[in-house]
């Protein structure tokens, strides 16, 4: 597997003002694919994961699995992973730095081999991104953890059953704990767990592998097994890609039919779209049509753990608020620094001020095109949305951030009538 070393600085040129119309199929979930692909480390048997989106973080995960010695094959959205004989328990720094979610290999490696050496995942631009909760569960299970030269060295003889109440509701913390305990035959109890659909998709997979998991509110009771089976699983649709496309349809005054979604995963977003004045027609559990005309109504948004309003949709809905008929307030409760898109939106004429964790957005008639820079995955998506409705042309730079988490977003938008050109970075054009 070719290592992805140089991140291309391709950029997008977006000519705004076009209504989006038509239908688009939503891809499989990035944040469900990553832990599920990594769960294949727990078994000597082959695993098949379907509807895996072809994006940078998935390719990085394949590279990581390869580095550990697993065989990986990926074609047309179907990944074959066979971790029959691993020959390493080291997750190298250069991979972890590229994708923090690499920390998810710690749980499976400890469960299977009793050893894991993982580069310390640094923070990222949206916040400190701590992993103290992951480590506390490992220590409760008997692991010894030392930090040496920027690496976490973890060892455990025999994993003990764990009773732990998370101090913070953490998505990958819950996922790491589940995989860590998946081969421990005794009864463990995790409280205050995350219940995101992506976590529950991993629970489905672990159950297929032979792990007993009961979920009662935010409490999970786990009974693992030494000999876990391989699995075949189709990941859930990406509710954040779906939400991003829905906002695009509404904001451009268009009419977009999203196919292959899970409506039951999008409740909080759909409520806010309706409040903003979108016409939302639910045509079944997997199809929803979103239409818009005229300026949105202002919104009060406060991000929260699922089923609350998703932090991964905060930047996209902020674009909607920048052209609303009034003043909106957006409070980011999950990450401490997830307003990097604000500066870039201001360059496009948005009127936003920050008070601690709250952005106060005074809606303006129209944004105007500008050259803007992506700072993180969802910020880059918000800049694309802003470009779709801005007067004139918008150039969105550093879209490797976008490519980390979206499978061909500009192609999907162009298929709906947008005018977006990807300009390849001369140095890395393949
Ligand atoms: C997952 O990140 C997602 N990534 C993120 O999506 C998402 O924004 C986030 O959950 C919240 O929903 C993946 O699933 C790969 P957390 P994760 O642990 O697990 C604090 C995207 O755009 N915390 O739930 O890293 C932490 O600092 C990405 O697709 C601790 O204090 O998020 C943060 O403030 C961005 N100690 C909060 O909890 C810990 O041990 C939520 O973090 C763990 C987390």
UniProtKB/TrEMBL annotation:
The family this protein is said to belong to: Belongs to the EPSP synthase family. MurA subfamily.
First-listed, main subcellular location of the protein, grouped into a coarse class: cytoplasm
GO cellular component term, pick one: cytoplasm
Encoding gene per record: murA
Residues involved in UDP-N-acetyl-alpha-D-glucosamine binding: 100, 312, 334
Protein name per its UniProtKB record: UDP-N-acetylglucosamine 1-carboxyvinyltransferase
Pfam assignment, any one: EPSP_synthase
Keyword vocabulary terms for this entry: Cell cycle, Cell division, Cell shape, Cell wall biogenesis/degradation, Cytoplasm, Peptidoglycan synthesis, Pyruvate, Transferase
Entries under Gene3D superfamilies matching the protein: Enolpyruvate transferase domain (3.65.10.10)
Bilayer-crossing regions: none
Catalysed reactions listed for this entry: phosphoenolpyruvate + UDP-N-acetyl-alpha-D-glucosamine = UDP-N-acetyl-3-O-(1-carboxyvinyl)-alpha-D-glucosamine + phosphate
EC number: 2.5.1.7
UniProt-annotated binding residues for phosphoenolpyruvate: 30-31
UniProt keyword Ribosomal protein, yes or no: no
Pathway: Cell wall biogenesis; peptidoglycan biosynthesis
Record-annotated Enolpyruvate transferase domain positions: 15-413
Top-level EC class as recorded in UniProt: transferase
GO biological process: cell division; cell wall organization; peptidoglycan biosynthetic process; regulation of cell shape; UDP-N-acetylgalactosamine biosynthetic process
An annotated Gene Ontology molecular function: UDP-N-acetylglucosamine 1-carboxyvinyltransferase activity
